[in-house]
Predict the structure.
Amino acid sequence: MDFITIFKAGLRKHKITLIVITFLCMIVSASVNTAAAVLKSSRNYVTDEMNRIGYGDITYWLSGCEDYALLAEQVNKSDSVESANVQNIIYSGYSMNGQHSDNEGQLIAYAPDKYDYRFLSADRKSHVNPQIIGENEIYISPSMKSSFSANIGDTITFELSRVNDKAVFTVAGFYEDPFMGSSMIDMKGFLIGEEGFRNLQNRIENISDFNVLAETGAMLHVTSADSDISSEQFGRTLRQSTEIGRYTKFMYSKETISGFMLILQEIFTGFLFGFAAILLIASLIIIGHTISFSIEQERTDIGILKAMGCTSSFLRQIFLCQYGLAMITGLFIGIAAAFPLTKIVSDINTSSCGLLIPTEISPVFILIFTILWIGITILFIFKSTGKVSKITPVTAINGMNMKKVISASNKIRAKTLSVSIGLRQLLSEKKRYIGICLISAILVMFTGIVTQMNTWLGPNGEGLMDAFSAADHDIGIQPVTAIDMKEVENIISNYDSIREIYGLAMLNASIEGADCTANVIDSTEKFHIISGRTPETFDEIVITRYISENLGISVGDKVSVESNGSTAVYRISGIYQCANEMGANIGMSQQGYERLTDIKKYDWCYHYILENGNHNEEILQELQKRFRVEANVHTNSWSGLDGIVFSMHLLTVFMYIVTALFIMAAVCLEGGKMLRSEERNLAIYKSIGFTSNQLRAGFSVRIALASTFGAVIGILFCSFSADSIISMLMSHFGIGQFISRYGTVSAVIAGFIIIIIFFAFSFLYSRRIRKVPVSVLAAEN
Amino acid sequence: MSEIILNGVGVTKKIGDNVILNSVDIEICKGDFTVIMGASGAGKSTLLYALSGMDNITSGKVIYREKEISSLGEKAMAQLRAKEFGFIFQQIHLVSNLSLFENVAVAGYISKRSEAEVRTHTAEMFKQMNLTEAADRLPSEVSGGEAQRAAIARAVIGNAGIVFADEPTGALNRRNTEEVLNLLTDLNNKGQTILMVTHDFHAALRGNRIIYLEDGRLCDELKLGEYSESDERSKKMDKWLQEQRW
């Protein structure tokens, strides 16, 4: 028998099915390759850029030191240190486009011979050659585009002193800051010319101590001599052997900063990978079902071919080539589509990540993925075509061994005729609907998780804000000089009622020698406790899950905490939630911290919890206007949050669109086969007076009912497991516990949407019922 | 003269250059049992489906009870099928996952009659047709005769004005053929209009009016009168068919 002739005939006969399979495989392949490319390129690029610009294993942000070079020399002398390099900076508050920053900015001198930052084009879509920075020019991170609506030509004003001493720069372009360019980091670096930097240093030195607001300082990039040592151990050694602790404002290990820089990419690609895996499973279910259906419908042809001398193995090879061709074509189109998709994702993420991630897809990954895909394709198609061997020429041609018709017992009702007939068909041929049911279940599971994540995130990123805060608040105000707190309260009260006020100080400390931030609070009941309890006595603290896992300590353990040179022993009373510093923080009471050292007056930030919380932005602006230089004011948010929320919402929309396309493909494949096999019944119904629309409704009801069964499974799964699955994902980013009050609601919403999409597409697809002629029942046919 | 309920005027059906029906004029009167005969490929079934609105015609008109149906839209045509037309096919075209009873009742429901009324009517018909025992069985679980009797019940459950039967005994054995023909004769005796296509001489004898079709043209017509099992009727038709070179 001529293989090519039968193969070509099969391609012609199944062309629509094969095109849809190609499309499904293309979606899966494009998703996997895009996710892999974004993840790998991001990780490589962030690490490479951090190394290239000179980030140490730990970088310290220092202030208050007379001679940073001397300090670096002292650090360099330590046996554990390979190198310690100083990069001078200026800390200063700033405002732009009417928005005041709630965190200090850092002005960095552009010295290409030492720190060769990369610049971006005006549209932030390509790199450009190194720039010469004019005296009043400044380069900013692309993430300021989303947080401050920054554009080239805008001005940024830095507050140098209380007496109206300002430095004004014009934005000349964008540059990549691999240390703090991400929206996840509220501190921002600004690149200015060396000349301008020196001028600023001089101006600040000439301002009296009483009036000065800006501060000169430095980043000290310290690299460990021992590559095996952990950053916690390294930090502990430095703290013990040098004076670095005295001048440290804050410090971050390389892993922590790259974690912050990559957090969005990791969440993004995590979801994309999960999505691709779900699509792969769903595709295999549909394709398997389609093959099985095709064999069922072609029993007679298969029997005739066998009677003509074709072996089962020969016929299975034909199926393998037909479906394999579609699946492998889909794979390659998907790989090709991943290139522009990666570029799109990279461009979208530039405003959040602050870096223009190159769009490279690893040839090794493509090769491995292709080999795996071909392997899966061959095994899967061979398994799915197993029943070809069981068809003999006689049984096929005589129509023997055909499926026995089983009828369900639901009553056919006159009032709900289409629905009850649809239900009868569904229950009588359950196996045919298993594919739809399973696809619906897994899509609901996934979209339920995504919806839950989105609900948790909230329209303004409330979930993320809460996860990163030690305690809830609407407005925070940290005076840097004496202000009248009564006036603050009056301003707030003009907009909203104040429910509670508490104080929080974020101070530098170490636990068991590992650097961390101490969240010191005057109302310990405000901490987000996950397990155990909040500190009740002065010798108790709470720790994050990150600290617990990294230091191997838990509730009940006694640990040593150090700050400002004093050490005391505390008992861990509970685990609490605060993803700040990627989870490297502890919580303690005011009395607890005061065992170590006094808290300075201006270390306190006063947090206000408001009755409604829907005028926070107006309150923020009013307070910033009134206390422009006297206090730092913030909401329970940070300036880059909008960009992150936008990216996550965009990802959700993308996933819903792809899910809809996927359902459309599933309906085409499964529904197409069903309608073909039901042509005779459809003609019978038409002959007794059913309209095409009634039959279409019946068909759509069946598909919708099958998807409803699946959706229920998905909803149950989501209700019980979504929290823990998202928790698992989030724990990588220091968000130790994910609790959503809307778990079941989100899953029900997702389920409802999926069912509606199934119903809508099956109704649209069933337009072909109109073309089924009653004359197919004629004796002459 | 009886009332004409179905009227075909110049009914023509072409597929490409091939003329299947060539300007056929035909009238079907109320209460008639009209049989269309002809050689294989003469266009018998095509004419039946053209007159019943199941197939489009190339030109001409089909008028049912003074209303032209050849240009009706899908919805109006579906209503006509539900309330006025009944169909019996050669193959046992029953819905495979509905019981015999349900196959019949569904046709009653679609004609917008109440569920209780349809169920009572169906049960009565099943009793008359000796189908009560098979009522809850699926089409695959009953004999061809039982299934075809159920198909006849389905055709008339909606009080159809006319029943179109396309070779209704073509797939049945002798005993079942006789049962089905008796049933059709009974229905006709009660006033049911029937238009049947057959190439079976004995089946055709049940009609009171025989139309002969050749190459898509209406050639001749024989009036037989009310059915009786007489040799004379048989001889008359035999002679007529010989004249038609059947």
In short: Chain B has a mean pLDDT of 89.
